Amino acid sequence: MSCKRIRIGSLFPGVSISPTVIGLVIKKQDPRNLKSTSGDRWVFNLTIRDSPYDTANVSFWGSQQFVIQVDSQIEVGSIVGITNVKLSPASPGGDQYKPKVTCGSHLQVSENGGEIQVYDKNHELLGYGMGEMLKQLIHLPNGPVQESLTVADIRAGSEGLDRSSANLLVAVQKVGAERIFRTRDGRDAVRLDVTCFDQSGCNLHLVMWDRCDIQFAKTWVPFQTILFISDACLKWDTFRCGLIVQLTSRSICTVQPDCEEGRNLLQYAISAEGLLDDIVDEGSRFEPDFNTDLSKISRIFNVEQLKEVTSQIGKGRHLDAVLYCFFSEFDIDSENTSIFSGSWFVFLFSLYTI
């Protein structure tokens, strides 16, 4: 027996509906507390899909307990059924804090009247084959893959592209460690850096701040996970003097996208795993280790000793030392990114052999 269901493509603004809207969660955002003179309200946003063509944004409003409880039950890839939905017109230009969707209505669910249920794909209420069909939608790209920027495109970009949006098709090179810190206004925040690559280049930095995105990213496997990212934000990084990529509330990550370009990139990623181990980048192995106690570095080299030790120590070895020197030549236009200096005359360095 299947439930009485209405499809996203049949939704129109200005009415409340009692039939159930069933869809696959393709985007989830952290719960937020909205303070006002009338009291605190909590909201939790999802983006769902019920066909290759139809997507919608859903907001759940209520108390902190209700919103956090709903949040704990749902993850990207969950099948949800939402009942007693109020439909409001979507913003004509789109909501800058929510993903772009096809539905002209924004789905609103309140704690008092609405209801949400998470279904297993084999749940009897879904009907024959519906659960499996919805699960397959998780691999459908949420935008035109052919319009994606390459890693080389982004690396060649200028500061003029700061805060612009783009679609990306990349492979995961490395998933960094989660970092927790406190903001200026006293809030606890979290950040995760993921390094990505494609056939055109490697070591592209992907940064995320949303806890839901971070939990999702922890399931990604280097050199085996392919991502199609819609509406990623390009941001100029003054430290790296180049563009990095940030996930925002508008971005949707599709894992293992079902397209020819994604399958080709997966084959390349699997074959490139050993090769990329030997590629050095300013943001990876030659990034100084600030956990090192500089006062404990006692080894001192001159230039001749430095040249000798680089030819003798084994591949992948690491050592710290001090070099007193005068720079007679420093080619800042060189493609060699393995040089960094602490000062012009006293050089504290970490040396890796490749």
From TrEMBL:
InterPro entries: MEIOB, NA-bd_OB-fold, OB_MEIOB_N. Keywords: DNA-binding, Meiosis. PANTHER family: CELL DIVISION CONTROL PROTEIN 24 OB DOMAIN-CONTAINING PROTEIN-RELATED. It holds the Pfam family OB_MEIOB_N. Residues 6-141 form the MEIOB-like N-terminal domain. Gene3D superfamilies: Nucleic acid-binding proteins (2.40.50.140). GO terms for molecular function: single-stranded DNA 3'-5' DNA exonuclease activity; single-stranded DNA binding. GO terms for biological process: resolution of meiotic recombination intermediates. Belongs to the MEIOB family. This is MEIOB-like N-terminal domain-containing protein. It comes from the Eukaryota.
